[in-house]
Amino acid sequence: MDQSSLKLDVLIFGGGITGLWLLDALHRSGYRALLLEAGNLGDGQTINAQGIIHGGLKYALRGHPSRASRMIKDMPMRWRRSLAGEAPPDLSSTIMRGEYCCLWSLPGIRSRIGLLGARFGLRVRPRSLPRNERPAPLQTWNGPVSRIDEQVIEPHSLLAMLADQHRPRCLQIDIRSGLEFTTSGPGKIDCVRLLNPETSAPLDLEPRHVLLAAGSGNDGLRQACNLPGEAMQRRPLHMVMARGNLPRLNGHCIKGTAPWLTITSTLDCADRVVWQIGGQLAEDCVDATPEQTIARARSDLAQAMPSLDLDQVWFTSYRADRAEAAVDAGKRPDGPVHLLEGNTITLWPTKLALVPMLSEEVMHRIPEPGHLDDDLHTLHDWPRPTVALPPWERDLTWTDMHSATPPSR
Ligand SMILES: Cc1cc2nc3c(=O)[nH]c(=O)nc-3n(C[C@H](O)[C@H](O)[C@H](O)COP(=O)(O)OP(=O)(O)OC[C@H]3O[C@@H](n4cnc5c(N)ncnc54)[C@H](O)[C@@H]3O)c2cc1C
């Protein structure tokens, strides 16, 4: 068997949005960087995300500015420039789910106070949405409906575009069949040995820096690098999807001072509208069965959009964990987190929207490139990873209110 070795400026583990964004930034700045993906690109969080480029609505609803709200409020403008092709990375071919989210609230004094907080606490402020411009189910809504200029992207297309641009620099790995770390201290990685998943030929990578951008996979990688455990927390969600006779709609229905239902819409491979439904529902139903969660979603939708006809609508649910840096009592970290230990940096963006900020922070921590050329021709026969399937294209059981034995697709 051939054995080869490769010196690198940076080796990245994980090809979700964090790993791919950083790979792009490093490559453009002249670093010799390689990304290793153990499954499908974006599996875990990015492919399951609703794709909202948040500007801090959740924090503003609570009415008091926090570190988290200050951190996130510039992100919609930052993404807008990349999505328009005006700033790197050029994301201009990302499919957009929408240019804004609708915002409306259930009746109640706390919800009204929450909306006032949003009006004054956000950089991208909500504006009133005239009745004739609202999506159909909100045209008959009695209360005010606003639009908030948070763009909504299609995560699959975002991943596919970055992966296409960096195909020579992304390798598929199989962590079960061989991945060996040589370390000379906690997080001090001298060499990573891989086996080509198709030929079993070994490859030794000698990186100056290693980025762990593997979402919930960071836990196992940290162990392999002799780094302390308990740095990460998982916060589960139980999301609902609806498909059928539905309009395109992206928005948040507010109850009290929290997004109670967050809905984003997309088209599936048969051109059917699919809604991803999260918000408080997805947090409250973590321990519920799919049937209970779908029942709750139907009842919430009936309150949030009384004129919506759910007769021809099919439902299913899926679970996904948010992987974040561990903070007090399972709370969400204020912003993106990176931990520099030895020559290893562990990364958790906390939100997809915060990845540009995380990327800038990390680029400041990595010294100038080591003048290695970018010729990776020795890797031409290595298998390349593909993007994960979005949740609505997976083999899930969909039910409608009439179906006793529902079809799976
Ligand atoms: C249901 C849901 C909805 C969300 N909606 C939004 C939203 O609307 N807006 C927003 O801003 N944020 C949202 N988020 C949060 C957002 O998705 C995440 O913050 C972000 O996608 C994290 O990206 P990542 O690249 O760090 O991790 P991931 O997307 O989890 O990617 C990790 C990658 O590492 C790979 N991997 C795992 N283990 C290994 C290993 N040992 N070696 C190599 N590779 C490995 C995985 O296969 C994967 O490709 C949502 C999260 C969830 C769960």
Describe the structure.
By secondary structure, this protein is an alpha/beta fold. The chain is 24% helix and 28% strand. The protein has eleven helices and 18 strands. The strands form three sheets. Strands 1, 2, 8, 9, 10, 11, 17 and 18 form an eight-stranded mixed β-sheet that branches. Strand 17 and strand 18 form a beta hairpin. Helix 1 crosses helix 11. It is globular and about 65 Å long. The model has no long low-confidence stretch (mean pLDDT 91). The structure holds flavin-adenine dinucleotide. Flavin-adenine dinucleotide binds next to helix 1, strand 2, helix 8, strand 12 and strand 16.
Task: List the defining traits of the structure above.
single chain; 409 residues; alpha/beta; eight-stranded mixed β-sheet; 11 helices; 28% strand; globular; binds flavin-adenine dinucleotide
Which sequence of SSEs, written as H and E, runs from N to C? Answer: EHEHHHEEHEHEEHEEEEHEEEEHHEEEH
Mean pLDDT: 91
Bound molecules: flavin-adenine dinucleotide
- Envelope shape: globular
User: Using DSSP, what is the number of strands?
Assistant: 18
Counted by DSSP, the helix tally is 11
Q: Helical amount among residues, as a percent range? A: 10-25%
Distance between the termini: 45 Å
What does the oligomeric state look like here? single chain
Poorly predicted spans? none
Percent strand = 25-35%
Rounded radius of gyration (Å): 22 Å
Largest sheet at a glance? 8 strands, mixed
Content-based structural category: alpha/beta
